[in-house]
Amino acid sequence: MNNVISPKQLRPLALSSSLVSGLLLASTAQAGTVTDVDLTSAGIILPTTNISLYDNAATGVRLSGGLTVHGFAAGTRNANFGGTREGAQPDKGPDWWEAAVIPSLAGEVDLPESRGTLFGGVSGSYGLTRGNAHGDVDGATPGHPEEARLKKSYLGWRSGDMLTDSLGEDAITFSFGRQTFQFGDGFLVGDAYSDTGKNAVYYIGPGDEFQSSAVLSLESQGWHGDLFHLKAHQYVSGGSDQDTSLNGVNVDYTLGDRAKFGAAYLDIYDSDIDARDGMEVYNLRAKGIPLASLPGLALGGQYVYETNNRQNVDDHAWYGQVTYTFLNTPWTPEIAYRYAEFSQGYDPLFYSFAGGWGSWYFGEVVGEYMLFNSNLKVDMVKASIRPHESLETGLIGYRFRYDETPQGISSRDFAREVDLYADWTVTDHFSISGVYGVAFPDDGAKQSGLYDDHTSQLVELFATYSF
């Protein structure tokens, strides 16, 4: 076994694809926020297959396919606040670009006598990183890597009309194999694949699947439940690959369009990471509209507790957010404030990008390349407008502080960051996003010896075309 791996090495920016696919969530103009009741749905996430290839109503056999293409480019100045930290990008102004292609194929067969539907699918990915010889700001993809691999392969069954009179249509779903699974808007579980080193495409991150899984889900009358087994395989550049296996249960209850409540329990019974091996994880969450007379006001939050008596683990994380949307105002302005806290030894496990910018990567400069949801306190203020139904633009401000000051550092203040973003859904198939981020180091960063005192700047452009 090994010591706790850094969240940077586990970095799962392959973004939860619960709404569309990969970063399409970030570039959908009305992606929503984590206080939206219907932002994401718990359960397995199937690949995007919008093209009908075969459909025989007489036999109940259907076959569909899809192809998603991602492109990303970034330019930086004074990366890592102008410092050079061990294992990170030695160039103080790296520019790089990435591309990924994701083909998918899915099939369904209706069983006779209304006994449900069998389904299955496969998807692959090909990705490459070019530009700076060390790749991204973290230097996590050096040497211009590229990789083609199997992404998903799964089989399953759903109940169809078999239980319509009692539980509802498609009330029960069972699936197993290499697939994506999430709950709780990806705050804890949503992305289990690391796109570093030979895997390339550090930012796009086309992988998000568990290496193996078995998931039994129930959906009925506002209730959703999952019983699951998950195994994640994490590639570690320059070290031994690491596996984590767990069993768990998740429950959600949705009260119309007003509120959603959830809870989950994870038993991590085997892991190559010492602190995880034997860990138990508890999760509580709630969000919704508290006042019917004030529909623009939404609240939300989650709490996670991690314990492991074998490894003396006793850690927690939580966030609370208030969002107000001016529903009857031109351009639909929206403002939000979030406070998030992650204790010193907290393990963020398999968090993802399920809630748009700032969720759950806090900042395109600091949250992507410096601090990774452990030993961290974050204040976030966000303001956005929608000049058109296909366009959203906004400004996000962050204040980053250590939860506990590391050895040799006297200040908890790490940095401040401001991000200006725009998401444009050009057509039903094509989306584009742009971000300018600037971060200012505080004493906690300067005293670490890993960073300098310069202002970091970053410009990003991301595009997706889905057939």
Automatic annotation (TrEMBL):
The keyword Signal applies. Gene3D superfamilies: 2.40.160.100. SUPFAM superfamilies: Porins (SSF56935). Keywords: Signal. InterPro entries: Alginate_Permeability_Chnl (IPR053728). Residues 1-31 form the signal peptide. This is Alginate export domain-containing protein. It comes from Larsenimonas rhizosphaerae.
